[in-house]
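Quiz preparation item.
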């Protein structure tokens, strides 16, 4: 665990919002970093039929359009690009650029590909996908993308030392990662979901059932702001590769991202005032002890030694809706309060979409009781 990770670790314990500098000043520009992946000696994925068609060129031209369209369509923003030419930039540098720019959001642009062994009909898979950082990923698609996009590291000269800390298998690595992730993952998911919404509207043909995936993607891990990696489409699909090379489709793709940023920026700016006035003591809708009360069921989504405000971004779409209870020496966070057991069971899968370890608990007043007892 290097010093940086320890610093992040400590900062996170002391001040959960330390990592994203909240917009106290509403005049502050909204900073966007666009990261066209690959470049220079790293071509990215190649078209199967025409090897001269390279990922790095498609994503650069979409990113340049994106930058111009953002400037035209969204007021009060600044846009930084990690590269504007065909040059190779190490992954670690890209994350540094974003962190230095104090970026509000980070969007990495890529093109997807599959190998024959990935999928029996690998050339027929198509569509736009969004990836967010996730370390306990059982998500096969996310892991595959992580492997492929991380492979860019191998083009760097000194990758063994630069990425020595990248190994998330060590316990410290896992903890540090988890903390970094907790701080921004709610916002990253929100940004990805906003992109998904516009993608479904704009490109119904390129939509699939599951458009958001998570994986241990280095470039998303190194950034400390909400980050999404967009895979515009599959270069291994002949039809989609053609489309992605056309200027009009590139504009359509960029428009999805512009609309999503606009929407996301509005929601963050409208929310930030309420976040800043909430203090931990006010955000305490704890259940009053009442022995005559009927048992209630909750879904526990998190617990920890430090107290987070109910509006904390770690609660993802449940921010502002969680109930906190102080039990033993831990703060536990619940959603879905109800007296109806069937209802809580019905809600569970939805909650688990965002909190995979969520589980049902029961309380009578302030006392935790067994589910069986509560059901009587
Ligand atoms: Zn890529």
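Solution:
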């Amino acid at each position: 665990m290097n010093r940086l990770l320890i610093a992040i670790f400590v900062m996170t314990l002391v001040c959960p919002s330390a990592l994203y500098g909240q917009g106290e000043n509403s005049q502050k520009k909204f900073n966007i970093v666009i990261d066209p992946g690959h470049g220079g000696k790293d071509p990215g994925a190649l078209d199967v039929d025409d090897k001269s068609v390279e990922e790095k060129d498609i994503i650069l031209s979409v990113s340049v359009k994106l930058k111009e369209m953002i400037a035209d369509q969204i007021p009060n923003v600044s846009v930084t690009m990690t590269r504007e030419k065909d040059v190779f930039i190490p992954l670690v540098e890209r994350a540094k650029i974003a962190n230095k720019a104090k970026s509000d959001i980070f969007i990495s642009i890529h093109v997807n590909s599959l190998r024959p062994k990935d999928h029996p009909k690998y050339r027929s898979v198509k569509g736009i996908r969004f990836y967010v950082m996730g370390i306990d990923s059982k998500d096969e698609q996310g892991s595959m993308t992580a492997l492929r996009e991380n492979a860019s590291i191998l083009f760097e000269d000194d990758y063994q030392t630069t990425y020595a800390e990248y190994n998330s298998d060590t316990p410290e690595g896992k903890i540090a990662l988890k903390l970094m992730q907790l701080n921004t993952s709610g916002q990253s998911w929100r940004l990805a979901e906003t992109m998904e919404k516009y993608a479904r509207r704009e490109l119904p043909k390129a939509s699939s059932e599951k458009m958001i995936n998570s994986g241990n993607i280095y470039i998303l891990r190194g950034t400390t702001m909400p980050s999404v990696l967009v895979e515009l489409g599959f270069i291994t699909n002949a039809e989609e590769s053609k489309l992605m090379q056309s200027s009009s489709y590139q504009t359509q793709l960029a428009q999805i991202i512009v609309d999503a940023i606009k929407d996301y920026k509005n929601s963050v700016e409208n929310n930030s005032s309420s976040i800043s006035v909430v203090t931990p003591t006010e955000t305490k809708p704890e259940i009053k002890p009442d022995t005559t009360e009927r048992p209630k069921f909750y879904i526990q989504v998190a617990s920890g030694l430090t107290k987070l405000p109910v509006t904390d971004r770690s609660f993802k779409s449940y921010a502002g809706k969680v109930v906190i209870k102080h039990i033993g020496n831990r703060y536990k966070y619940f959603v879905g309060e109800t007296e109806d057991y069937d209802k809580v069971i019905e809600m569970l899968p939805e909650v688990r979409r965002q909190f995979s370890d969520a589980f049902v608990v029961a309380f009578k007043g302030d006392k935790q009781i067994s589910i069986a007892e509560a059901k009587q």
